[in-house]
Write a structure and sequence with these properties.
The complex is a heterodimer. Helix content of chain A is 37%, strand content 38%. Chain A is of the alpha+beta class. In chain A, a hairpin with a 2-residue loop joins strand 5 (84-95) and strand 6 (98-111). In chain A, helix 4 crosses helix 5. By secondary structure, chain B is mainly alpha-helical. Chain B has one domain (2-144, 154-291). Chain B contains 10 helices and 5 strands. Classes of the chains: A alpha+beta, B mainly alpha. The interface between A and B is large, with 58 and 56 residues. Strand 5 (84-95) of chain A pairs antiparallel with strand 5 of chain B, so a sheet runs across the interface.
Chain lengths: 268, 307
């Protein structure tokens, strides 16, 4: 008796397993390759800089696809990278009692914006070597920039790239937050990407990385365009595309303003 | 309310900029000075990049001096021949100054040089103003009338290339006004000032030109040189921010009207001492910024052609 009930239970288990297997094949097979992945969306993929621009907040929403085990929950890191540009870093030295910029070093392709947000502290999510290879986090940014400085002394290169990261962070262009990614329930997450008023214009990328157990499961990159718009764009383009006529325009504007003001105050 | 400046590429409080334009305008109306030498440092203290502060300052002076220049012209107080020679020097000086700014910018030393130029000029001018007004106050207490140096012959009169300036009733070499104009053009381009604080005393004491002609002719030269510097800075450095300039102009002209009215009720020597004190305070602030060890020894700047 015991054995028959055992067999029937075994059979039931088998049937259920096959059913679940079939169901799972049916439901998930078209996206079988993206079994562990993320889908994301932004509240805005174009940010205009207009005359009253004081910064912007973009929300990135996402969903984690694939199996979720309660004992081994996935982690999410979101890195937003701005356009890259060559910069010159200098160190001040005291010369005749005053502090003078000296020792210039070129740092090629510096991201003008870099923000990293994660669901937990970065090193709890993945080992430093993996983070480094993906350029995630300030330490890996420092080593990336060090490689972009053309000096023999690697300590010196590191000092300069640390200084670049420090200065950019102080200007609000580099940001990091260990609790920036909020995971809602098991599958949904959201990040607030903060852009300050001094954010440069250009092509940005929001890269979402999905980790579990210290391993990268998936990633997804979404472009964001930050561009001067309306009046700001008009003035900026005028100044850079037709600098001479812009100068003439500035003089005429000043002349009109000066003469108008005098005329107005004379009537009083 | 914040406004984003398209060339300075920062967001500033619109009322703070109005207030700054107004305050400098008030002082210039009160003291009868251009005010550029206070405007540029204030803009730098606000966080405007020094090169933008200088070029935009020059643009703003066009607005603040054009009406005065026109009024002087109508009164016949402009010595056109002298003004033209000053202007030729001014144009050459502007070209040199703007290219100097471009070069210094590419090697990362422009902020320092602008600060040093200000510390030097503000120090000398503020110091002289304080001394002059303190002396004047002492004299008025002791009832001493200042001695006038009547000698009309100095080394200036020994120079070649003499030209007759009918309006100024002078027969002097063209070299001093040419060099003076050049120096002023250089200062306008490098410091965003009108240069009245150099050109007026030089014309009165060195060239001995009648005061009414000095005022008219220097304004004539200032309008043109600041206009040329604005165009040259736009062309070479793209550092003129018309939005910032317009805000400063609006604040400036309103402030100047009040300044002139208040100025009529105050005594000259004390006001000059006050202005001298303010000039020295700005000078000191800039000097301190150069001398104390900065929190951040490193700096970054965009890579510009020259490096």
């Amino acid at each position: 008796m015991i054995s028959t009930s055992h067999i029937s239970q075994y059979l039931l288990h088998c049937i259920l397993s096959i059913f679940i297997l079939l169901l799972s094949l049916f439901v998930f097979s078209p996206s079988a390759e993206a079994a562990d992945g993320v889908i994301t969306d932004l509240t805005a993929d174009k940010v205009p800089i207009e005359w009253n621009f004081t910064g912007a907040n973009i929300f990135l929403f996402g969903a984690i696809e694939g199996e979720i085990r309660p004992d081994n929950k996935p982690d999410v890191i979101v890195v937003v990278r701005g356009p890259k540009k060559g910069l010159v870093a200098r160190k001040k030295e005291r010369t005749f009692g005053i502090w003078v910029n000296k020792n210039p070093n070129k740092v090629s392709s510096v991201p003008l914006y870099y923000s990293v947000a994660s669901s937990r502290p970065l090193l709890d999510i993945a080992p430093a070597s993996l983070l480094d290879s993906l350029d995630i986090g300030f330490p890996s940014l420092v080593s990336e920039l060090s490689r972009n400085i053309d000096v023999e002394d690697s300590n010196l290169a590191e000092q300069y790239s640390e200084a670049v990261v420090r200065i950019m962070e102080k200007q609000g262009l580099y940001k990091s937050g260990a609790s920036g990614v909020k995971i809602v329930g098991d599958r949904l997450f959201q990040v607030n990407i903060k852009l300050d008023a001094n954010v440069p214009s250009g092509e940005f990328f929001a890269d979402v990385y999905l980790f579990r157990g210290g391993k990268l499961l998936g990633r997804r990159s979404t472009p964001i365009t930050i561009h001067k718009s309306g009046f700001e764009r008009l003035i900026y383009n005028f100044a850079y595309d037709h600098p001479f006529f812009y100068g003439v325009f500035a003089v005429i504007l000043a002349a009109i303003a000066g003469l108008t003001a005098t005329a107005l105050f004379k009537q009083d | 309310m914040q406004v984003y400046l398209p060339i300075a590429e920062i967001s500033v409080n619109i009322f703070a900029i109005f207030a700054m334009g107004g305050a400098v305008g008030f002082l210039s109306g009160l003291f009868g000075v251009g005010g550029g030498f206070l405007m540029t440092p204030l803009l730098i203290f606000t966080g405007i990049p020094p090169t933008v502060a200088v070029a935009t300052g020059a643009n703003q002076i066009v607005a603040s001096s054009i009406s005065g220049a026109l009024a002087q012209w109508k009164r016949g107080n402009v010595d056109v021949k002298l003004g033209t020679i000053l202007l030729i020097g001014g144009i050459v000086g502007s070209f040199i100054g703007v290219e100097l700014v471009r070069w210094l910018r590419s090697i990362g030393q422009i902020d320092l040089i602008i600060s040093l130029a200000y510390v030097t000029f503000l120090g000398v001018i503020g110091g002289l103003m304080m001394l002059e007004s303190l002396n004047a106050m002492r004299r008025s207490k002791l009832n001493i009338t200042p001695k006038r140096n009547k000698s009309r012959h100095s080394w200036i009169h020994g120079l070649p290339l003499k030209v007759r300036f009918h309006r100024s009733k002078l027969f002097i070499s063209a070299l001093p006004p040419l060099i003076l104009g050049l120096l002023v053009g250089l200062l306008v381009a490098l410091m965003g000032v009108g240069g009245g604080f150099i050109i007026v005393p030089a014309m009165i004491y060195l060239l001995r030109i009648p005061t009414n002609i000095v005022v008219g002719t220097s304004l004539f030269q200032i309008v043109f040189v600041t206009a040329i510097v604005t165009i040259l800075h736009s062309t070479s450095n793209q550092t003129v921010d018309v939005v910032l300039a317009l805000l400063l102009m609006i604040g400036g002209v309103i402030g100047a009207q009040f300044g002139v009215r208040v100025g009529q009720h105050l005594r000259g020597e004390q006001m000059r001492a006050l202005l001298g004190f303010m000039v020295l305070a700005v000078c000191l602030r800039m000097l301190v910024d150069l001398i104390i060890e900065p929190d951040e020894l490193y700096s970054v700047s965009q890579m510009l052609g020259g490096f």
